[in-house]
Amino acid sequence: MKKLVLVTAAVAAFCGVAYAQRPAPNAAQTIQSRQASYKQMAAAQKAIGDQLRAGSPDIAQIRQRAAFLADRSVHVLRWFPRGTGPETGIRTRAKSEIWSDGAGFQRAGANFVVAARALNRAAASGDIARIRAAFPAVGRTCGACHDGYRAPAQ
Amino acid sequence: MAGAPPTGAGVRIWDLPVRLFHWSIVLLIPALWWTAENGRMELHLLLGEILLGLLLFRLLWGVLGSSTARFASFVKGPVAVIRYLRGNGPGIGHNPLGALSVVAMLLALGVQIGLGLFASDEDGIYAGPLSHRMPDLESAHELAERHETFFWVLVALIALHLLAVLYYLVVKRSNLVAPMVTGRGPAGEAGQAMVPAPWWRFVLAVALAVGMTLAILKLL
After folding, report:
1. A13 pLDDT tier (thresholds 50, 70, 90)
2. DSSP state for residue A56 in the 8-state scheme
3. Number of domains in chain B
4. Does B123 sit within 8 Å of A49, measured CB to CB?
């Protein structure tokens, strides 16, 4: 039994390492789809901000966008397999620090998840004051990642 | 305060609101540039809103203010500009050529603030208070790029203004900076001085500027 556990753990560890080091099967596609996802997230972010800027915010609109952001936030860290950085020669603003400072990137990603979920809970409550209070952290945690791990445009 | 003894040389040229507006701009424009360059966008947006209020005040003061603050007193046609260039007697306040520069800077400031009001960063995180009026994020972000480019138009006009001030100081031996600080300077050839505006006009201009600013930020 103990042997079985050890073997299973070894296999799992090997698979984990193999997965982490496996080059992206299609780097171009990965880059393109994460860029598209980020554009959708930016649009959602702007849409929530627009509602908060408007005289009478539409809670349903905010709720839908906040749920979308919270849902996507969990996936962000998976959009950067090794071999999808600037070394590919493909147009991407992902900096090599994403991989050289993996721990920092993971932390930044986790902060975003926490903020996006908090906003989603606030949106679900329908309390505008709570939404207003939770919203800036989403922008800040998005921005924290952009500052350290995204190259400037052009 | 008409009977107050003169502090410093000459006659009154610029009232306090004009001077405060001028030096606020001197502080705000570098601060706005710095906050934008360093990603301090919350502060950038706040300073931009303050600048909007100041600009609106200056435009109102250009109608309600003291004689040298009024557009009607200093915005002149090309004939006056040419006469001035031929060395025809300067009065007090903006000369006809300098007035063009003032109008250009105020206009550029208006354009820049207008662009900022509707602009958004590419991530939809920091956006101007009227950016929800843009059809989508992409068009709002395009305005942000124009906002960035147009800043250099503002810089060019300010550089021209500074060069002109330097030219007056070095070549024409006329210090334009001191009057903008103290409000006083040499009387014009006809010996005229500024006709001040009563205090209630200042209160009215401030109230109108604040009201208009809030209306633009909150109601539009």
Report:
1. low
2. S
3. 1
4. no
Number of continuous H segments (helices) and E segments (strands) in chain B: 8, 2
| Contact residues on chain B for A46, CB-CB shorter than 8 A | 120, 124, 127, 131, 137, 140
**Which residues in chain A have their CB less than 8 angstroms from residue B219's CB?**
55
> Which residue of chain A has the CA closest to B119?
A46
Query: Residue B101: which domain range?
Result: 21-219
Higher pLDDT among residues B81 and A15, named by residue: B81
Q: How far apart are CA B79 and CA B90, in angstroms?
A: 14
Domain membership of residue B81 (yes or no) is: yes
> CB atoms < 10 A from the CB of A25, how many?
9
Contact A44 B126 (CB under 8 A): no
Domain ranges of chain A: 28-149
Q: With 90 as the cut, is the pLDDT of residue B63 above it?
A: yes
Query: Chain A: nearest CA to B176, how far in angstroms?
Result: 42
Compute the distance between CA of residue B98 and CA of residue B81 in angstroms, rounded to an integer. 9
Residue B83 within a domain: yes
Residue B74 domain flag: yes
Q: Considering the domain boundaries, does residue B13 fall inside one?
A: no
Residue A18 structure tokens:
């193999």
Question: Closest to A46 (Cβ–Cβ): which among B42, B130, B137?
Answer: B137
pLDDT tens for B122-152 read: 999 999 999 999 999 999 999 999 999 999 9
C-beta atoms of B123 and A54 within 8 A? no
The CATH architecture that domain A28-149 belongs to is Up-down Bundle (1.20)
Q: What pTM does this model have?
A: 0.86
Task: Give contacts of B 117-176 with A, CB under 8 A.
Answer: 120, 122-127, 129-132, 136-137, 140
What is the C-alpha radius of gyration for chain B, rounded to an integer number of angstroms?
19
